[in-house]
Write a sequence for this structure.
C-alpha cells in the first residue's frame, strides 16, 4: 500500500499548539517571566479584596501529586487553584497506590483518565515530570523533581526580590550553603541570570558542584563573599544528607561556624531569603531569620500569587515552554 | 573450544563484485569470493558459480564479520529481557559472527555447572557462536576467586566481574597471578565504588546543572591505573572493559608503551555521544560507565584510531520496558547495541571522516578476537567463512519493530542511520539476510 495523501497541509484545520508545561526554568524566556510576574502582581491586588476568590479557572481541574513531603509548596498550589475557582484534588504518595508498588507511568495514566487540566507534581526523581507529561494530556507543573528543578520557587523568589528589593537587572544575589543537593539553587541560578542578576555561590567545596560555574555564576568558599551581595539567599542544610560518613562537611557544628548566616556577617539593610523549611541555628541564625530584613514570610505570600499566575498562564496565554525528549542526534 | 552454537549446515556461496576489505590480510579490491561448504575457497574475478548460490555484491563492502566481546545475554535469570536465541539472532542481524557473553546473570556464571548448562543451551539455540565469560570472584562478590582452571577446562572464554570492579587490590593481584595458568583473559570493569557511588551521569557542568549525582571520570581512571600497575608488576595481560575517560586512555597508552600486554574496548555510545545527551533525561542514554565530555569522546576516538583501544564492544545490555519506562534516576544502567553498532559508528565516525572504514572494520572484528585469543575472522583461502556484506550507502530508521532483541532500550530509537548489514555469514552458514 502506498502513502495516502489526504489533503494539502493548508486545507487541514490549524494544529493544536504544543501543550505547555512548566518543568524547568531553562524552558522559559525572559518575556515569559516578565508576563508571569506581572500576572502575579495583578493577582496580589485582587487578594486584597474582601472576596478573594476569582472565577477565572472555574470548571478546570488541578491535580496535585506529591511524592515527597511538603508543607508550603503543596498548600500554596492548592490554595492558588482554589483562589482561581479550579477544582482541586491532592494526592500524597503515602496511602495511595504508590504504596502498593504502582509505577509512576501507571499513576500518570490513571490520573490522566480524569482529564485534569493541570497536574502539579513533586517527585524525588529527576525526570518524573517529563514522564508524566509523556503519558497524560495535562499541562505539567514541576513542584520539585529530585535535585533538578523547582521552577515556581525560583519565580516566587524573583517576584519577592523585585517587589521588595528592586529591579532584577544588575541585582547581586549570594546563594549560601548546600548547592549540591538543592533544586532551589539550580532553578534560582537559571532564573536570576536569565533576568540579568549576578549570582555568587558560597559554601564548602564539597557542596558546590564541580562545573556549576558554567551556569554563569561565581563561586566562593569564603562566607565573607556575601558582604557584596544585595540579597543573601540561604539554602537549607539538609540534615538527612549530612549523616556520619557522608563527609560533605566534618560536622554541622563546623558548617555553622564557617558558613552560618549570622547578624555579624551581614551588612545593615542586607536582605535575607530562605526557601524553607529553616534549620534555625544551623544555616541561619534565629536573629537573622526573625529580623526585619528577612523576606522569608514574604516569599511564602509571593508563592501563592506566583502559583496562581502559573496556573492561569498555562491555561490561558503563556509560554511555549514545551520540552519533550527529542530523538538524539549522533554526534 | 571456546565458542558454542547450533550445528548448522555449511553453505556454498559466491559473492560477486563486492569491494572486499580485510585490513588484516591487506585486501581492498573489487573481486568475487567463493565459499565451498562454509570455507573460503577462492578469491578472484569472474569466478565460476557452478551450483553455488550467487550473491550480487556490486556497490557493497564484503568484510570479515564482526566479533562483539561484550554482550549481556541475560540468561540464566532474565529470559524476559533476552535469550541466547534472541540475542544471537540480533547479533547476526548486526553483522556479528561471534559474541562473548558476560557472566553477571542470576545466578552468576561462577561454576562449571552453570557454565555447562549455558553451553548446552547455546548448542541448542545459538544462531551464531557464543563464548561465555565466567566470573572472577564467586557470585561476583569480590571475596573469593572462582575455580578458574576448571571453568577454563569447561570452555570459559575469559573471566570478568563485569558490572562490578574487583575492589580489593590484594584480590585483584591474586586473580592476575592465578588466571595465568588458564591462558584466558581477565576482563576488568574499572570503577572505584567510593568515587562513583550514587552517580547517575558523568560529573561535570551538565550534572551540576541538572542536579544528578556525579560519576566522575576519575572513578574509572584510578582503577584503570591500579589494575595496569598490578598487571605490570605481575607481568600478566589484561583487558579493560568499556573505557570512557581520557585519563584511562592515556594511562593505557603509557602502560602499553612500557610493555604491559593490556587491551581495551570502547562502546559505540561512548564514541558517538557525550553527556550533553543526558539533557533529554531519556533513560536510554543512562549507562555505566556514563557518557562523558566531548574531550573524553575525542580521546576515545583518537585511541581507537591509533590502536591504543583495539576493540569495539557494544556492551549490549537489554532491559525490560517497565524498567526503563521510569524517571531517569530510577532507570537501570545499560542500552542495547548489537543491531545498530555498525550503522551507528558508520554514521557517527566514518561518514564524517573521523576514522577510516578499514579501522572500524578491524576494531569490530580482528581487534576483539585478538584481545581474547580467538581466531580472527579473515578473508583468506582455507579460512572458515565469517563474512559480512555491508551497504554503506543505505539509510534506515531505527524502530522498535525492527529489533530481533527482546528488548528495545536503544539510544538510537527514531533515528535514521547510514550503513546497513545486508548479509552475515557465521562459521560458514548464512545467518542473516536483508
Amino acid at each position: 500500500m502506498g502513502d495516502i495523501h489526504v489533503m494539502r497541509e493548508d486545507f487541514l484545520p490549524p494544529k493544536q499548539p504544543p501543550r505547555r508545561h512548566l518543568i524547568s526554568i531553562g524552558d522559559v524566556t525572559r518575556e515569559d517571566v516578565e508576563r508571569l510576574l506581572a500576572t502575579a502582581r495583578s493577582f496580589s491586588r485582587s487578594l486584597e479584596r474582601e472576596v478573594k476568590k476569582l472565577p477565572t479557572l472555574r470548571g478546570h481541574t488541578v491535580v496535585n501529586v506529591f511524592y515527597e513531603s511538603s508543607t508550603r509548596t503543596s498548600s500554596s498550589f492548592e490554595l492558588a487553584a482554589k483562589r482561581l475557582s479550579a477544582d482541586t484534588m491532592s494526592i500524597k504518595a503515602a496511602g495511595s497506590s504508590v504504596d502498593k508498588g504502582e509505577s509512576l507511568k501507571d499513576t500518570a495514566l490513571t490520573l490522566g483518565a480524569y482529564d485534569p487540566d493541570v497536574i502539579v507534581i513533586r517527585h524525588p526523581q529527576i525526570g518524573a515530570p517529563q514522564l508524566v507529561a509523556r503519558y497524560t494530556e495535562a499541562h505539567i507543573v514541576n513542584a520539585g523533581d529530585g535535585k533538578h528543578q523547582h521552577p515556581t520557587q525560583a519565580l516566587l523568589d524573583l517576584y519577592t526580590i523585585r517587589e521588595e528589593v528592586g529591579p532584577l537587572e544588575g541585582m547581586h544575589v549570594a546563594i549560601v550553603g548546600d548547592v549540591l543537593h538543592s533544586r532551589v539553587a539550580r532553578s534560582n541560578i537559571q532564573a536570576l541570570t536569565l533576568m540579568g542578576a549576578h549570582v555568587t555561590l558560597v559554601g564548602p567545596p564539597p557542596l558546590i558542584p564541580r562545573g556549576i560555574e558554567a551556569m554563569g555564576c561565581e563561586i566562593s568558599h569564603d562566607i565573607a563573599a556575601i558582604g557584596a551581595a544585595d540579597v543573601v539567599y540561604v539554602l537549607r542544610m539538609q540534615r538527612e544528607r549530612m549523616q556520619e560518613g557522608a563527609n560533605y562537611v566534618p560536622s554541622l557544628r563546623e558548617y555553622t561556624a564557617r558558613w552560618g548566616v549570622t547578624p555579624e556577617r551581614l551588612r545593615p539593610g542586607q536582605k535575607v531569603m530562605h526557601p524553607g523549611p529553616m534549620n534555625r541555628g544551623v544555616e541561619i541564625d534565629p536573629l537573622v531569620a526573625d529580623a526585619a530584613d528577612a523576606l522569608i514570610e514574604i516569599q511564602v505570600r509571593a508563592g501563592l500569587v506566583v502559583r496562581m499566575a502559573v496556573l492561569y498562564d498555562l491555561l490561558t496565554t503563556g509560554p511555549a515552554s514545551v520540552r519533550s525528549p527529542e530523538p538524539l542526534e549522533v554526534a | 573450544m571456546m565458542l558454542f552454537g547450533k550445528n548448522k549446515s555449511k553453505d556454498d556461496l559466491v559473492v560477486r563484485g563486492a569491494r572486499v576489505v580485510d585490513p588484516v590480510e591487506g585486501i581492498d579490491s573489487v573481486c568475487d569470493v567463493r565459499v565451498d561448504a562454509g570455507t573460503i575457497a577462492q578469491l578472484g574475478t569472474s569466478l565460476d558459480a557452478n551450483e553455488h548460490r550467487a550473491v550480487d555484491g556490486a556497490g557493497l563492502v564484503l568484510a570479515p564479520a564482526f566479533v562483539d566481546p561484550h554482550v549481556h545475554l541475560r540468561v540464566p535469570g532474565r529470559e524476559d529481557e533476552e535469550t541466547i536465541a534472541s540475542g544471537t539472532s540480533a547479533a547476526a542481524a548486526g553483522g556479528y559472527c561471534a559474541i562473548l557473553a558476560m557472566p553477571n546473570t542470576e545466578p552468576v556464571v561462577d561454576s562449571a555447572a552453570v557454565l555447562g548448562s549455558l553451553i548446552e543451551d547455546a548448542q541448542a539455540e545459538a544462531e551464531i557462536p557464543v563464548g561465555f565469560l565466567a566470573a572472577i570472584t564467586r557470585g561476583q562478590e569480590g571475596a573469593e576467586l572462582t575455580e578458574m582452571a576448571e571453568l577454563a577446562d569447561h570452555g570459559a572464554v575469559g573471566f570478568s566481574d563485569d558490572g562490578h570492579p574487583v575492589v580489593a587490590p590484594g584480590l585483584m593481584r591474586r586473580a592476575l597471578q592465578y588466571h595465568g595458568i588458564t591462558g584466558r583473559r581477565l576482563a576488568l570493569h574499572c570503577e572505584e565504588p567510593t568515587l562513583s557511588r550514587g552517580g547517575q551521569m558523568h560529573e561535570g557542568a551538565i550534572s551540576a546543572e541538572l542536579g544528578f549525582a556525579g560519576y566522575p571520570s576519575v572513578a574509572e581512571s584510578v582503577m584503570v591505573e591500579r589494575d595496569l600497575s598490578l598487571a605490570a608488576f605481575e607481568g600478566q595481560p589484561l583487558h579493560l572493559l568499556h573505557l570512557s575517560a581520557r585519563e584511562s586512555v592515556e594511562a593505557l597508552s603509557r602502560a602499553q608503551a612500557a610493555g604491559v600486554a593490556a587491551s581495551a574496548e570502547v562502546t559505540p555510545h561512548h564514541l558517538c555521544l557525550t553527556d550533553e545527551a543526558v539533557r533529554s533525561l531519556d533513560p536510554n542514554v543512562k549507562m555505566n560507565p556514563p557518557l562523558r565530555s566531548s574531550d573524553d569522546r575525542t580521546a576515545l576516538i583518537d585511541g581507537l584510531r591509533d590502536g591504543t583501544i583495539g576493540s569495539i564492544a557494544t556492551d549490549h545490555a537489554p532491559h525490560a520496558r517497565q524498567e526503563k519506562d521510569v524517571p531517569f534516576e530510577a532507570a537501570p544502567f545499560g542500552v542495547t547495541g548489537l543491531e545498530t553498532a555498525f550503522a551507528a559508528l558508520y554514521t557517527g565516525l566514518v561518514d564524517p571522516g573521523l576514522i577510516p572504514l578499514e579501522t572500524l572494520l578491524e576494531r569490530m572484528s580482528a581487534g576483539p578476537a585478538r584481545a581474547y585469543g580467538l581466531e580472527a575472522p579473515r578473508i583468506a583461502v582455507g579460512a572458515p567463512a565469517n563474512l559480512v556484506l555491508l551497504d554503506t550507502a543505505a539509510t534506515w530508521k531505527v524502530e522498535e519493530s525492527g529489533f530481533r532483541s527482546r528488548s528495545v532500550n536503544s539510544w538510537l530509537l527514531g533515528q535514521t542511520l547510514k550503513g546497513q548489514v545486508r548479509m552475515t555469514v557465521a562459521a560458514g552458514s548464512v545467518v542473516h539476510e536483508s
In short: The domain at 65-374 of chain B is CATH 3.20.20.140 (TIM Barrel). The radius of gyration of chain B is 21 Å. The longest strand of chain B covers residues 387-397.
